[in-house]
Design brief:
The complex is a heterodimer of chains A (290) and B (190). Helices cover 11% and strands 50% of the residues of chain A. The longest helix of chain A has 31 residues. Chain B contains one helix and eleven strands; from the N terminus they run H-E-E-E-E-E-E-E-E-E-E-E. In chain B, strand 5 and strand 6 form a beta hairpin. Chain B is elongated, with a radius of gyration of 33 Å. The termini of chain B are far apart. The relative contact order of chain B is 0.22. The chains are: A mainly beta (290), B alpha+beta (190). Strand 11 of chain A pairs parallel with strand 11 of chain B.
Chain lengths: 290, 190
């Protein structure tokens, strides 16, 4: 009885599954046509001791991709609320620590065949009188369909619209001149408690000649030392950065005095090659809020 | 084979055995020098952005504005969907360059395209269906992502849902109009 039921069920579902399969077969190429490319590693380090570097660009799609490499300047910047953004600037760059003008990529434009990859090399040609320090640029890898479909107007509809979706990944490139060091200062900590949240605002400033790369842990403990909230993030401070943590607190158990703990270290970054890290100071700070 | 032939072949056989033994000895010595070890590695996803679905306004008629909702609630249109993949929970910055108009390939006419301050949404759960927004930032100004705290999400995948509107004029030239939307993503922790 059960077998018969299953058999009937299978027969009943067969046409639906074939329909689903047909739809998927139709959709997969459509999704694939809009897929981007992979870029690795996430940061490129050059220096006066090794002025060349490389990234690998991989096309995981089954259709060719036109890939363009450009340079722009953009550092993580925060607003008064601790929101961080990166605004890319590709012209009229006046920042003295920009290396956009003297780093070149080879090749700058390429067609990546399906499931293939290409190495893009970078060469730095810094000015002769370059002062010691770290100089920055963003490598902007743009990918789009190499053979974009040309839209045709439908006689009945008269007007058609096609939006080309262009994807860009911007990775950081750093050039280090001479001996550089990383040092971070926690300039200010502000804690505010609202109805159901505790908000922690941290003002950080880089005091070194290189950017400070690390991990920031922030914890909130109640009057009994019980851990109420914890968060951590990967930190990159180039100049000044404001970061915000918001911890939800519920119930009447959470009473003052509570404690905010901040721990910053440049160790523990597994996403960056240890040989490329400039290890800086650690910061351990706690604040009792009464 | 007689006894004499066998005696002639004996040195050859012994020599072959000796050579084989000699070849095996270094192999044994080498194997003793090799220690058994174990290497482990976790491969993390690199940051990538893909356009999963193109922003589609469907049928457009002269003088009739068409709005594509970011949640696919408008009939006959489709929201644009960008998928971002990367290291789980990593902070990222998103920047979008939007067109002000779409143009014909010959450039002889243009059609206005507009986006309002809530035309984008950022879903951090890995959901890529605009109609099923889960958690993230529901209303984002596509021109200004700075105010929207963006994070790849705990699953390592997040999605941007984008709506918009095209506004053809009453005497809009019939034809095919195109424009570019550029989405740039970058880690802010490197």
């Amino acid at each position: 009885m059960r077998e018969a039921h299953l058999s009937r069920s299978s027969v009943r579902w067969f046409p639906r599954w074939t329909t689903v399969a047909a739809v998927l077969l139709f959709l997969v190429p459509a999704f694939d046509a809009l897929a981007g490319v992979l870029v690795a590693p996430p940061v490129v380090i050059l220096s006066d001791k090794g002025r060349t570097g490389r990234i690998t660009v991989q096309n995981t799609a089954t259709t060719p991709r036109e890939v363009t490499i450009n340079f722009a300047f953009g550092l993580p910047e925060s607003d008064s609320l601790g929101n961080v953004s990166v605004l890319l600037q590709d012209s009229a760059i006046t920042d003295p620590f920009s290396c956009v003008g003297w780093v070149k990529a080879f090749p700058r434009r390429l067609i990546l065949q399906p499931n293939s990859q290409q190495v893009v090399r970078f060469v730095a040609k810094p000015p002769k009188d370059l002062a010691n320090g770290e100089y920055w640029s963003r490598v902007v890898v743009q990918s789009k369909e190499s053979e974009a479909a040309v839209p045709t107007s439908d006689p009945e509809q008269a007007i058609t619209a096609k939006i080309n979706m262009i994807m860009q990944t911007a990775i950081m490139l750093k050039y280090r001149q001479g001996d550089v060091f990383a040092r971070l200062e926690l300039q200010d900590t502000q804690v505010e408690d609202h109805d159901s949240t505790v908000q922690v605002m941290l003002d950080l400033k880089s005091q070194g000649t290189a950017s400070y790369i690390g991990v920031l842990h922030c914890r909130l403990r109640d009057a009994n030392g019980k851990l109420v909230g914890s968060d951590n993030l990967q930190l990159a401070v180039y100049r000044h950065l404001r970061r915000r943590f918001v911890f939800p607190v519920v119930g009447e158990d959470f009473v003052k005095p509570y404690q905010v703990e901040v721990e910053i270290t440049s160790k523990g970054r597994t996403d960056i090659d240890a040989r490329d890290m400039i290890y800086g100071n650690d910061i351990d700070y706690s604040m009792l809020v009464e | 084979m007689n006894a004499k032939q066998g005696l002639f072949r004996l040195p050859r056989i012994l020599g072959t055995v000796a050579v084989l033994a000699a070849l095996m000895l270094p192999s044994t010595a080498t194997s003793q020098d090799v220690a058994v070890g174990q290497a482990t590695a976790t491969v993390l996803a690199v940051l990538a952005v893909s356009a999963t679905t193109g922003l589609d306004f469907g049928n457009v008629y002269q003088g009739v504005s068409v709005t594509a909702a970011k949640d696919n609630s408008t009939t006959g249109t489709a929201a644009g969907v960008f998928t971002i993949t990367g290291a789980a929970s990593a902070d990222i910055a998103v920047y979008m360059q939007m067109p002000e108009y779409l143009a014909t390939s010959s450039g002889d006419d243009r059609m206005v395209i507009s986006f309002n301050s809530t035309d984008a949404a950022f879903d951090t759960t890995g959901n890529v269906d605009p109609a099923s927004f889960a958690t993230g930032v529901a209303d984002v100004d596509p021109y200004n992502w700075g105010a929207a705290a963006t994070n790849v999400g705990s699953t390592g995948t997040s999605a941007i849902f984008l709506g918009g509107a095209v506004i053809p004029s009453v005497n809009q030239t019939a034809g095919a109009y195109t424009g570019d939307i550029i989405v740039t993503v970058s880690y802010i922790g490197t």
